[in-house]
Amino acid sequence: MLNRMIFGLLLAAMLLVVGCGKAKPATETVDGKTLRKVRLALNWFPEAEHGGFYTAQLKGYFAEEGLDVQIIPGGPGAPVIPQVARGAVEFGIASADQIPLGRAEGAKAVALMAAIDQSPRCFLVHEASGIKALEDLQNCTLAMSSGRAFAEYLKKHVPLKNVRIVPYDGSITAFLRDPNFAQQGYEFSEPFLATEAGAKVRVLPIRDIGFNPYTSVLFTSDKRKQSDPELVAAMTRACIQGWKAYLADPQETNQHLQSLNPELSPGVLSFGVQAIKPLTNVDEPSYGQMTLERWKTLTDQLVEIGMLKKDIVKPEECFYEAK
After folding, report:
1. Nearest-angstrom CA–CA distance, 258 and 267
2. Domain boundary among 161, 180, 209
3. Which residues form the signal peptide (predicted)?
């Protein structure tokens, strides 16, 4: 965990260095074809939630669209939204709730495609606790990141009777030690780790109480959307193709992810893909597309929990369907 934190801080520093000047279009010639260099900044370390973007790189889908994409791993505190919004990095990955929150602060980011349609954000409890739904959370210690949208939504909609909230430290150690402990997680990661360590786990998705932002969202800046729609469309097409290929056959990409992030085991990556696929609409022609209704619901919820002022962000400006 310490190594991850150090790595994340170094990556955040690298992004700050990148942001010292505006990115200028650059090209290189590969096998006689001129490719435009662009950067894609991830919101976390390379994991299954980023698999489709790496697949687009490995299988040449970016190159087919005339792009040479550098994927920049993220980490704790990586300033992806502001970096992309001000043009220091061309594209980024975020959770949908970060888009309107960023726009409210002047970081004009716009979502392009959603790799994961249903939110994988969840809470873990022990089966023996008797807690079978989020509304049942009581008489326990709950580790979560207060101040994050999902956490504030939970506090607003669930009584949390006799629940002691403590900071989430990124580990399942306390959960394994204490049968009256609950914690935040993602369906594609922590449930596997806890089960592998011998715990009997019940997974409670946050979407069960209505908070369901798109996840692994590709986004760019308003300015780039307006000034370079061909680049935006090409990047979006390649990412959609990459995700379809990854969810159909993840083996090569998972090996690559493990080489980039040695903390990942083949087991957690395999589990991750199987957990992510039901959360997508990958088998539908509309895969990757987003709806105004979902964005309206999300912005209304952010207003409800006090993280967004009413009418400061227009839902229709939060996303864009590239042609």
Report:
1. 11
2. 209
3. 1-23
pLDDT class of 14 with cuts at 50, 70, 90: very low
Same domain, 273 and 311: yes
pLDDT tens column, 145-159: 999 999 999 999 999
The torsion of the CA quartet 223, 226, 229, 231, rounded to 10 degrees, works out to: -10
Residue 323 inside a domain? The answer is no
Tell me whether strands 138-143 and 161-166 are parallel, antiparallel or unpaired.
Answer: parallel
Find residue 181's DSSP bridge partners. 141
Nearest residue to 38 (alpha-carbon basis) of 91, 94, 93, 115: 91
Greatest alpha-carbon pair distance for the chain in Å reads: 66
In the β-sheet with 201-205, what is the strand arrangement from edge to edge? 161-166, 138-143, 181-186, 121-126, 201-205
Is the separation of the CB atoms in 221 and 85 below 8 Å?
yes
User: Which of the pair, 20 or 84, is modelled with greater confidence?
Assistant: 84
Tokens of 123: 């809470």
DSSP, collapsed to helix, strand or coil, labels residue 125 as: strand
Q: Over the range 189-203, which residues count as b (16 or more CB within 10 Å of their CB) and which as e? A: bbbbbbeeeebebbb
**Residues 139, 109 within the same domain:** no
Taking the model in full, what pTM does it have? 0.92
Number of structural domains found in the chain = 2
Whole-number pLDDT of residue 28: 75
Q: Which residues contact 170 (CB under 8 A, 6 or more apart)?
A: 1, 4, 5
Give the pLDDT confidence of 194-229 residue by residue, as tens digits: 999 999 999 999 999 999 999 999 999 999 999 999
Q: Which domain holds residue 156?
A: 121-209
Q: Which token pair is 308?
A: 């967004």
